[in-house]
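Input chain follows. Return structure tokens only.
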Amino acid sequence: MSLSTTVNVFAGNPLDRLSARRGDSAFIAELLVRPESLFLPVWNGQIFVETVDANVRLAYVSSADARPFQGDGEHLLFLGMWKETAVFAVDVEGAANPAVSILSDLGEFKDLRGLGTLLSASEAAIAATAKGVFEWKRRHPYCAMCGARSRAAEAGWKRVCPACKAEHFPRTDPVVIMLPVVGERCLMGRQAAWPQGMWSALAGFLEPGETIEEACARELEEEAGLVATRVHYHSNQPWPFPNSLMIGLIAEVEDGEARPDETELEAVRWFTRDEAAALMRGELPGAFCPPPLAIAHQLLKSWASGDV
């Protein structure tokens, strides 16, 4: 059962994470040798998938197939249980693509951005969880307290420093992403690095000591010179590129001249509801918006349709 009226791509993981049992080494060891346990390979952030009858789905392998990559637990992640079946992810490291050697004929590795709307909603969420934790592990191999190399613990959900005993947990960086609106107009921006013609919602990281609303107001003023008067929560989205939680907002702002900061944004543009709807249909000449994969698309869709 969904707890929100809007469930974005990468949300809705159906697995029972059994977080209270991750530290039970005997329990995890027993799950690892069950013949029915499933293992999802992840190689350099790419997800192992297969295509069956034109449908793309996650390609799980057996414990025997996953064993060459497990090591001493550094490359394993217990994702949870699907009913009575344990589901793990295994981090396959190295320059050579194992899909053309050890895992040949079992599937192929593909980038999760392209897979997001091809996989079922539940499988996209499972893949995002695996990618997010492995990205954290890859970026934090050393203890932040003393600099010693840390070790995996609790089935991949914690790292422990053998030198100073500090414990480190996966981090999620909160990001506010907002669509500023005045009456029948919304504002979108574009970065210089984006494809020509692409417009999207404004966004920025939440800073220490800020509320969500305060971060939204600050980012709007910094990036576009706009003053927020009211902030409405829309929905949120796990975003494993690498480890963010996108907090989607509709921000009412004072009517005034918008200006890009020319650091984050090279340009800003107002769109009417009709223009926003045409933008989403791909019918606005010279302009397009992010695909349905992104929460920015869902913010624009809700506003253009009059839902918010």
